[in-house]
Design goal:
Blueprint: H1 5-19, E1 22-36, H2 60-76, H3 79-82, E2 88-94, H4 97-105, E3 114-118, E4 128-134, E5 138-146, E6 163-170, E7 173-181, H5 189-213, E8 219-224, H6 232-237, E9 240-241, E10 252-253, H7 256-261, E11 267-269, E12 272-274, E13 277-282, E14 294-300, E15 321-322, E16 325-326, E17 336-344
Parallel strand pairs: 1-2, 7-8, 9-10
Antiparallel strand pairs: 1-17, 2-4, 3-4, 5-6, 6-7, 8-13, 10-13, 11-12, 14-17, 15-16
Helix pairs in contact: 2-4
C-alpha cells in the first residue's frame, strides 16, 4: 500500500530531524578601542590630552559616550551568525583596568557577565591590551604578559605594549588566546618594520613554548598587528599559511589573507585599505580529525553606523576625533572576529 504523500513527507522530515547534527558556536573577536582613556590625569603616563583640560577636552560626558559606543559595538560583533555577543574579546588601546570595568558594566554588556584579564604595560602612550571573556563560557587557568624589548638606533629603550597569553577552558576544552598590539608605523613602514619583526619573533617564541609542551595545542593569536597578512612579519617570521589544507602540527593558518586579497580592510589611510586587525591560529583548529572546537569562518564587522557617512572619508571607520575635532564616533578600526564550532550531542 502506498503512503499518502503528506504522510510520506512528514516521515521524511522527522527522519532528517533525528539525523541532523547540532552545533555549538563560540565567537572570538578583536577590537582596537582607539584611545579608551578615563578623564583623570595620571602622572605616570602621557594622558594629558585625554583630560578635561587637555587638547582633546576629554570630559566626563565624552568619556561616557565613548563607553556607550564601544559597548554597543562589542555586543553586536558576529551576532548575525551567533545571535549573541562574542564569548572572547581581545581589545587594545585601553588606559587601565578602570575603563574596562566601566565598559563591561554598561547596560549593553552587563547581562553577559564578562571577566577581565589585564596587565599594565610600559607603553609610552599609556595604553594596554586585555582579554574579556564570558564567565559562562570560558574559565581562565593561567595567564601571563610577555614584555617586548625594543631599542632604537641610539640604543635607547622604545617602550611598547606587552603581549598577553591566556590559557583556559572554553566549554571544558583547553584553548589559548593571545592579544597583541604591535609597534606602529610611525616614521614610515620600512623604518618601523624591524620593531614588528621583533614582535613577530616574540609571538612565535610564545607559541613554540606552548607547542613544546602540547604539540596539538589550540592557540588563537589576535590583535592590531600594524601589518597586513602579506607582510614579512607574517610571511617570513610566523610563516602563516593562507590555506588550511595539508598543514602539519607546527603550521599557522591565517584566514584573513583571503579577505585582504579581495580588497577588504579594517582601517583606511590615504585611500588605501589595510587589514592590520587580524586573527590567526594553530593548525589544530583546522583539523576536523581533532575533537572539540574547529575554525568555521572569519569576518570584519562593518555595520553602516560604524562608517563615516559623507565627505572624502565616506565609508572609512567613524572615529571619535577627526582632524582634531570631536565627532563622537567609535574607532578608527573596524572589529574583526571568527567563529569556532563543534558538534554536540542532542539530548
Amino acid at each position: 500500500m502506498r503512503l499518502p504523500f503528506v504522510l510520506f513527507l512528514l516521515l521524511h522530515i522527522n527522519l532528517l530531524a533525528q539525523n541532523s547534527d547540532s552545533y555549538q558556536i563560540r565567537t572570538v573577536a578583536f577590537y582596537n578601542l582607539e584611545n579608551l582613556f578615563d578623564t583623570k590625569n595620571d602622572s605616570l603616563i602621557y594622558d594629558d590630552d585625554r583630560t578635561p583640560d587637555g587638547k582633546d577636552n576629554w570630559t566626563k560626558e565624552r568619556y561616557l559616550q565613548k563607553i556607550e559606543n564601544m559597548s554597543r559595538v562589542i555586543s553586536e560583533i558576529g551576532s548575525t551568525d551567533n545571535k549573541t555577543a562574542p564569548d572572547i574579546i581581545g581589545v587594545c588601546e585601553v588606559e587601565n583596568l578602570n575603563v574596562l570595568e566601566d565598559l563591561i558594566q554598561h547596560t549593553n554588556l552587563a547581562t553577559y557577565n564578562y571577566g577581565i584579564i589585564h596587565f599594565d604595560s610600559p607603553d609610552e602612550r599609556g595604553i594596554d591590551v586585555a582579554l574579556l571573556y564570558k564567565k559562562s563560557a570560558f574559565v581562565p587557568v593561567n595567564f601571563n604578559s610577555h614584555r617586548l624589548l625594543l631599542f632604537n638606533l641610539d640604543g635607547k629603550r622604545d617602550y611598547t605594549r606587552d603581549q598577553l597569553i591566556v590559557e583556559g577552558l572554553l566549554d571544558n576544552e583547553k584553548i589559548y588566546f593571545m592579544v597583541n598590539h604591535w609597534p606602529s608605523r610611525s616614521g614610515g613602514e620600512a623604518r618601523s618594520r624591524p620593531f614588528r619583526l621583533e614582535a613577530a619573533k616574540l609571538n612565535k617564541r610564545i607559541i613554540d613554548s606552548v607547542q613544546k609542551l602540547d604539540t596539538y595545542a589550540k592557540i588563537i593569536s589576535m590583535g592590531d598587528f600594524n601589518d597586513d597578512p602579506i607582510d614579512p612579519s607574517f610571511k617570513k617570521i610566523l610563516q602563516v599559511k593562507k590555506h588550511y589544507k595539508n598543514l602539519d602540527s607546527t603550521n599557522l593558518y591565517g584566514p584573513m589573507e583571503k579577505l585582504y586579497r579581495k580588497g577588504r580592510g579594517s582601517l583606511a589611510y590615504r585611500d588605501k585599505w589595510n587589514l592590520f586587525d587580524q586573527l590567526y591560529m594553530t593548525s589544530s583548529l583546522t583539523d576536523k580529525a581533532i575533537q572539540g572546537y574547529n575554525y568555521w569562518k572569519v569576518g570584519i564587522f562593518t555595520p553602516e553606523y560604524l562608517m563615516d557617512p559623507k565627505g572624502k572619508y565616506k565609508g572609512y571607520p567613524l572615529r571619535t576625533y577627526a582632524g582634531g575635532s570631536y565627532i563622537g564616533g567609535y574607532s578608527d578600526h573596524f572589529p574583526v572576529y571568527l567563529h569556532l564550532i563543534k558538534k554536540v550531542q542532542k539530548l
